[in-house]
Amino acid sequence: MDDVDRRLLTCLLEDGRASFAAIGERVGLSAPAVKRRTDRLVADGVISGFTAVLDPDAMGWTTEAYVEVHCQGTISPAELQAAFLRVPEVHSAATVSGPADAMLRIVARDVRDLEQALERVRIEVSNIDHTNTAIVLSRLIDRPSPRPSA
C-alpha cells in the first residue's frame, strides 16, 4: 500500500459514495485507475465492505453505554460472541485484558431500554458474575474506521 492508496482510503472514509472521478480528482488519478486500486484493496482485504453509517440520534437511540462484563470461571470468546450477537442493542463487543472478561458498547432508545438490554445480556451469558455500566454523556470522536497513516 502506497501513499496514493492511503489518500484513496481517506476519501472513501470521508464519503463512501463519492464517485471514482471525484476521488481521482483528489488523489491525482483517473476514475478507472481509482476503480482498479479500490478493487485491489477489496481483493487484498484492506477494504472489508461498504456500509451505511446511521446517526443514532436520528434513529431514536439516545442512550449509549459501555459495559464491563465479569464472568465466573472461564468462557470462550466464541461463546461470548454468540451470546452477545443475540442482543441487538450490543453494537460492539470485545474481550479485554484486566479484571473484566469483555467490554460491550450498547446503544438503546432510553435508560429503560438499556436496562432491558443488560438483562438480556445477563440471561444470554449464564455465568456472568456482574457488570459495570458507564453511560455516555457525549461522543467526542466516533470514527467508523481508523484513518490510514502515512
Summarize the structure.
The chain has 150 residues and is α+β, with helices and mostly antiparallel strands. Helix content is 37%, strand content 20%.
Q: Supply the CATH superfamily name of the largest domain.
A: Lrp/AsnC effector binding domain/regulation of amino acid metabolism (RAM) domain
Biggest β-sheet description: 4 strands, antiparallel
Q: Give the overall shape, derived from the CA principal axes.
A: elongated
Rg from Cα: 20 Å
Question: Roughly what is the average pLDDT, rounded to an integer?
Answer: 93
| Distance, first to last CA | 10 Å
Uncertain runs are: none
Strand content: 15-25%
- Number of strand segments: 4
What's the CATH class label of the largest domain? Alpha Beta
Number of helices: 5
Which structural class matches the secondary elements?
Answer: alpha+beta
Sequence of strands across the biggest β-sheet: 2-3-1-4
What secondary-structure arrangement, pairings included, does this model have?
Blueprint: H1 3-14, H2 20-27, H3 31-43, E1 63-71, H4 77-85, E2 90-95, E3 102-108, H5 111-124, E4 128-135
Antiparallel strand pairs: 1-3, 1-4, 2-3
Helix pairs in contact: 1-2, 2-3
List its traits.
single chain; 150 residues; alpha+beta; Arc Repressor Mutant, subunit A; Alpha-Beta Plaits; 2 domains; 4-stranded antiparallel sheet; 5 helices; elongated
Question: Overview of this structure, please?
Answer:
The chain is built from 5 helices and 4 strands, in the order H-H-H-E-H-E-E-H-E. With 150 residues, it is α+β, with helices and mostly antiparallel strands. The protein folds into 2 domains: 3-43, Winged helix-like DNA-binding domain superfamily/Winged helix DNA-binding domain (Arc Repressor Mutant, subunit A); 63-135, Alpha-Beta Plaits, CATH 3.30.70. It has a 4-stranded antiparallel sheet with strand order 2-3-1-4. Strand 2 (90-95) and strand 3 form a beta hairpin. It is elongated, with a radius of gyration of 20 Å. The termini are close together. The model has no long low-confidence stretch (mean pLDDT 93).
